[in-house]
Each structure stands twice: as C-alpha cells, then as structure tokens.
Amino acid sequence: TKRVLQMLIDICGDRAPDDYDAEAIDYFESRIKFLPLNPDKVKAHRERWVGQNFAYIANEVELLGGVKTAGATTIKGHFERLASFFKFCRERDYMGRSSPVAERIKKSRSVNPDAPKRLAFDTKDLIAIFNPQTYESRNLPHTFWPPLIALYTGARCNEIAQLYLDDVLNDDPQHPDRWRFMIRIGPNRPDQRLKNQFGVDPI
After folding, report:
1. pTM for the structure as a whole
2. Digit-coded pLDDT (tens) for 153-181
3. Alpha-carbon distance 188 to 185, whole Å?
4. Quick one: DSSP state of residue 41?
C-alpha cells in the first residue's frame, strides 16, 4: 500500500485525501498504465529507475515504447489497495466524503457478474496431468512429485520447485505410523524465496 500511495503522490501531487477527486483518479489511472512491470525484479528496470519519481518513470516509458508495462490485474490490485486506504481515512473522519476509488472498484466487480469463471485447467487437462498411467513411467523425483504436492497442498509451482528432502517432515514424531507429513515452505535456505511473508507457513 505504501508503494501505491507513493505512486499516487508522485503522479497527482501530495494532497489531502478529499482532494483526490474523480479527475485526479482518472489521471492517475492513465499514467500508471505506463509504469514498467516488476520494476524491482527486472535488473534493467531496477538499474534505470531505482529511486526515481513514478511520474518521471511513466513519462519516460511512454516516450521509450517497447517496455513491458503493468497489466490489468496489477492495476486492479493498485486500486484495491487505494480503496482500502481511503476507506480507512473515511472511517476515521479524515475525509468528508467517499473516495471515487471505492466506486470504481464496485463497478469493476459488477461488470458482468453472470460471466462464467474460467478455470485454470479443464477436465481434459487434469486427466492428462494426474493420469495414474503417466506416473508409472516417471522415474525421476522432479517429474513425479511436484504435481502431486501441488494437488494436495495448493502450493505454488515455484515454492514446490525449491523444496529439499528435509523440508518434508513427520509432524507427529510420537506416532510415525500415522504417516502425517508437514511440508515447510519458508526462508530456511538462502536459495529459497517466497512471494511474500504470508507464504511462510507449514502445510
């Protein structure tokens, strides 16, 4: 949230919460579309724009062209964080009215409520991935276990790929016959990384 608020201040100016009206929010949305995707993760972006004002970055990316920018999902996430911040301000009487950001979030969520949800995998895909006959020919651990761990834990692919053998523990050592295991996904080694701190969790 702190990062998104800095974007808002850089692009629209440092204002009182009430002064971020619909026109300011429209302008903010038109500019963040030019911010580069994952600027802290991509080395070239980090070296070029580290510590720079977000308004300056957006202007430069627009002029350069060819830079991969934030997509609709990322922008939606920015607005959801802003909506939470302005809600906080409204509840504590730091604002005299609701923010236009909240209304925008409501509209984006109700564009087509009857539209069917798209599944990441259809039935054909799942059969192909988890067909028992497929596993009979998989002799290498990295081809056998990841899909099954994903199925039973819901862990992300990159988290599963980072697991070591000793990250799989019996969580009830007094009853080894129960065959209950705990998969620890966390910063136990320097080469293990998580999306955020909430991913540090035994499964």
Report:
1. 0.51
2. 777 787 788 888 777 777 677 877 765 55
3. 8
4. T
pLDDT for the residue 74: 84
Q: DSSP string covering 26-39, please? A: HHHHHHHTTSBSST
List pLDDT tens digits, range 177-202.
765 555 666 656 677 666 555 555 55
Whether residue 27 contacts residue 101, with contact meaning beta carbons closer than 8 Å, is answered with: no
**CA atoms of 98 and 103, how far apart (whole Å):** 8
Three-state secondary-structure class, residue 201: strand
Q: Which amino acid is at 36?
A: P
Measuring CA to CA, how many Å separate 189 from each of 145, 146, 181, 183? 21, 19, 20, 14
* ∠ Cα 178 179 180 (to 5°): 95
DSSP 69: B
Tokens of 128: 């192909």
d(CA 61, CA 54): 10
